[in-house]
Structure formats: C-alpha cells, structure tokens
Specification:
By secondary structure, this protein is an alpha/beta fold. The chain contains six helices and seven strands; from the N terminus they run αααβββαβαβαββ. The strands form two sheets. The protein has a five-stranded mixed sheet with strand order 4-3-5-6-7, sandwiched between helices. Strands 1-2 form a two-stranded antiparallel sheet.
C-alpha cells in the first residue's frame, strides 16, 4: 500500500495544508463538525455505483461555510482516489465543508470530457455526465481535481472557461498536482495549479 495512504500524519495534515493553500481566500475561522452523508451520484457504464461523501453543511446553500468538492480518479491513479478518501475521512479537521467523489471512474480508465457530450447518461462519458450533474447540484464554492499526473484537468478547464453544470452558474475550479510521493510539484511545475474564479 502507498505511503500516502498508510501515514496518518500525511493524510491528516499535508492534504489539509495543500487544500488550505487553494481555499485560503475563501475560507476562514476554525474547524467545523463533520457529518458526512455517503451516497451514490450515479452508475458507471458497467452498472457500478459512483460514490460520494457529502458534508452535510455543504447542503445548506444559505450557510456561511465554504464548500469544497474534491474529485479523485480523473487522472487514473489510485493515489488521487486514496487522497480524496483520506481528506474526506478527516473532514472535521478543516474550516471548510469538504465533500468528495473519491473515484469518479471506479470501473475503467477515465474518459475526461467536460462538459460531457452526447445523450444524457449514455455514450462514452456516462461517468463524466454523472459527475458533471452532481457538481452542479451540489454547487460548491470550489471544485478541486487531485492529480498525480501531468495531464490537463478537463474538469477544471471546462469550469474555468465558464461551462455551467446543471445550469446553476459558474463554479470556480482548481487542479492540485502532486508527485507520486504525495508532495506537491516543485515551484517551476506549478503551472498545473489552476485556480479559476467565477
């Protein structure tokens, strides 16, 4: 098993610090209680559920808590899914309401097409369609794509260009890139950290 998944200090502190850097201008204050609802946001093309953990404070659109949706698995690595799950397990340590889709493509390699083309919930990108709709319905203050690769984040790029999931309005997005050891990429490679505000 990966050091990232087995080192409790890394799971509890480093991801929180990394996300804090992304949401520092949005969130403030102290840690909030973490009641998480686990639910299915759709099914894969093979019929498996796509799971999400939703912070209950993220469901209150009139609340003052900053709401962050973390997405793992879009890079095709187990590291991003494990990191998203670790962040959700430690949700009570943050001063923002974190929700997560730990693995958007649990059955197969990801098909990153955002906004997803084709008929609703059919075609090649059915998982992307479920994730896209879920992001719109949750309407977080920020979507963060966790990546352990050099590939572009189609999700963050689409949201950054103003595409609107579920026609709810613009949602800011960021790509948070890591090396395979779980450390952030060196400064000269930070071009992968995209923060788009709506």
């Amino acid at each position: 098993m990966d050091r990232l998944a087995t080192d409790p200090d890394r799971c509890k502190t480093f991801p929180a610090k990394a996300l804090w850097l992304v949401v520092v201008s949005l969130a403030g204050g102290h840690a909030i209680s973490a009641e998480i609802a686990h639910l299915s946001i759709g099914v894969t093309s093979a019929g498996s559920p796509i799971r999400a953990g939703v912070h209950l404070e993220a469901l209150d659109p009139s609340g003052e808590t900053t709401r962050v949706l973390v997405v793992g698995g879009l890079d095709g690595t187990t590291q991003s899914t494990e990191l998203a799950a670790a962040l959700l397990r430690n949700a009570g340590r943050y001063d923002f309401a974190i929700s997560a889709v730990a693995n958007a493509f649990p059955d197969r390699p990801p098909v990153e097409q955002f906004p997803p083309p084709g008929p609703a919930y059919g075609g090649e990108a059915v998982e992307a369609q479920h994730l896209w709709r879920f992001a719109g319905m949750l309407a977080p203050d920020l979507v963060v794509d966790l990546r352990f690769d050099d590939g572009p984040s189609a999700l963050a790029v689409a949201l950054g260009r103003g595409a609107t999931p579920a026609a709810v309005g613009r949602i800011p997005a960021a790509t948070l890139r890591f090396q395979t050891d779980g450390l952030p990429l060196p400064h000269k490679s930070r071009a992968g950290l995209l923060l788009r505000r709506g």
